Amino acid sequence: MLLFVIRRVIMIVPILLGLLLLTFLMVRFGGGDPAAAMAGDAATPEQIAAIRDQLGLNDPIIVQFWTYLKNALQGDFGVSVYSNRPVGLDIIQRLPATLELTFVALLIASVFGIVFGTLAGVYRNSILDHFVRVTSVAGLAAASFWIAIMLQLIFSMELNILPLRGRLPGDIPAPTAITHFYLIDSLLTGQWNAFWESFRHLILPAVTISLGGLATIARFTRSSVVASMQSEFATYENAVGYPKRRIVFPYVLRNSLVSPVTQIGLLFGAFVSNAVAVEAVFDWPGLGSYLVAAIFAADFNAILAVTLVIGAVYAIVNILVDLAHGFLDPRVAERM
Fold first, then answer.
1. How far from the centroid of its chain's Cα atoms is residue 269's Cα?
2. Which DSSP helix (H) or strand (E) runs through 75?
3. What share of the chain is helix, strand, coil (3-state, %, to 5)?
């Protein structure tokens, strides 16, 4: 298992380099001038040219990429045009908000997706099964930003039971920073008002992000449960009179979880991507809203740094998913 982890960590390096190079080329040749954005609308051509020379934008593209790569390996991502602060500091402050939102959304999608998928598979062709399949298609088809706006209109503006935007109301201070996850920090420090408000602010954006993943997990879980229920061991146990719940838990469910766990790992990256639009709608102070602002500001350094961080987090989560595979299926662990 240790050798497997080492091999996967080594494999991450060329993947991140390729991701960084691709993003570097897309940003550099995709339009926009970082020097002009940094100089401002009132800058003269001479001032813009001086900034371009200072930033090394007149160097050959290979030299620019090599310089950026060396600085990035040292933790120096440059200064953000959008915030006029070091990009690394912006990422450190905003990454916990995105991770907290993503993990809560993933928890919602995983729990409800596995439960609904299991019930649909066990009671195949029932009304519940048809309902799960129809709602799964609807969840995959709906755009996340449209769902976000609809949830805001219903639960914030019409019913007025959940906050419209933000991570905490302005009159409640952030909990004492320990993990930088508001839910966890407020629990550890006993700041119950901050916990309740941060939980209320999380509900709408987390549900918005989770719906597509919930539908995917439910569909894969249903297919796996149906296949396991038709296998020889399930047929034998049913023939000798075992109760259905004894067959489903833990035998059928454990054999059926390998495929959904794979989807959970893949969905993590999709959730981070969906967070870009959702955070902008809900004014969530995470990497997504920061990336949107950086794109509009032609913030070259911020775009590259956020892309690199998201890629690294995604790669780490996939390693954890492979380890979970080994735990659920010993045959996978032997091949590792």
1. 5
2. none
3. 80, 0, 20
Residue 334 in tokens: 């032997």
Write the CB contacts of 206 (distance below 8 Å, at least 6 apart in sequence): 101, 104, 105, 108
Q: Give which of 78, 95, 16, 82 is closest to 288, Cα–Cα.
A: 95
Q: Percent of the chain beyond pLDDT 70? A: 88
Distance CA 141, CA 143 (A): 7
Beta bridge partners of 79: 86
List C-alpha distances in Å: 171 to 140, 141, 167, 194, 291: 37, 38, 12, 10, 27
Predicted pLDDT of residue 335: 56
Q: What is the rounded distance in angstroms from the CA atom of residue 165 to the CA atom of residue 181? A: 17
Question: Which domains does the chain show, CATH number per domain?
Answer: 96-290 (1.10.3720.10)
**Quick one: average pLDDT of 108-128?**
89
Structure tokens belonging to residue 125? 């062709």
